[in-house]
Write a structure and sequence with these properties.
The chain has a single domain, classed as Gcn5-related N-acetyltransferase (GNAT) (Aminopeptidase, 3-Layer(aba) Sandwich). Helix content is about 30%, strand content about 35%. The protein has an eight-stranded mixed β-sheet with strand order 1-2-3-4-5-6-8-7, with helices on both faces. It is α+β, with helices and mostly antiparallel strands. The radius of gyration is 16 Å and the shape is globular. The mean pLDDT is about 95.
């Protein structure tokens, strides 16, 4: 079984980004992301109703890290410290050395290579430091930009589930993409 014991939060860097622990002061950014119609279009989640929900999410993220169940980073521009989004390993299945990756970014940063840079850096950390064997992404099949992003960094489609979850009054499909550590 995969042993995960985060002793301290790993701050990561890429060419243009710094990946830091999500803390209470990040709640307004989380709220803004989780209420943005463009960001939520394919996430199949209801928008947050208030700042308390964002604070609750920060607490849940912190608790998950403390319990070695998940790790989430705020992605910030190196030059300015401005938050551009967040990226997470969650649904860690220790006995299978596998985790799910999740991410969201403010629309003004889309199409500029930031998410490709972020995913590559976080995946490298997941494989080399946490020792995942595989990483999966669960995607709304209509989210072609996210699918193209995942394929660009090496993910392949493993599965397609018809109407496997219920959201907003209808049953929805899911596409599962994965990347295996071949090193």
């Amino acid at each position: 079984m995969l042993e995960i014991k985060f002793n301290r939060f790993p701050v990561l860097e890429s060419e243009r980004l710094v990946f830091q622990q999500i803390v209470a002061s990040d709640a307004p950014d989380i709220f803004e992301l989780r209420t943005n119609e463009k960001v939520l279009r394919y996430s199949d989640r209801a928008p947050m109703k208030n700042m308390q929900e964002a604070m609750d999410m920060v607490k849940k993220i912190s608790d998950s890290f403390e319990n070695n169940e998940a790790i989430a980073w705020a992605m910030k521009l190196k030059e300015t410290g401005k938050t551009v989004g967040h990226i997470t390993f969650w649904r860690i299945i220790k006995e299978h050395h596998r985790a799910e990756i999740g991410y969201a970014m403010f629309p003004e940063y889309w199409g500029k290579g930031f998410m490709t840079e972020a995913i590559q850096r976080v995946i490298d950390y997941g494989f080399s430091e946490i020792k995942f064997h595989s990483i999966e992404a669960n995607v709304n099949p209509n989210n072609q930009p996210s699918i193209k992003l995942l394929e660009r960094v090496g993910f392949i489609r493993e599965a397609y589930f018809k109407e496997n979850y219920y959201f907003n009054g209808k049953f929805m499909d899911s596409a599962i993409y994965s990347l295996i550590n071949n090193k």
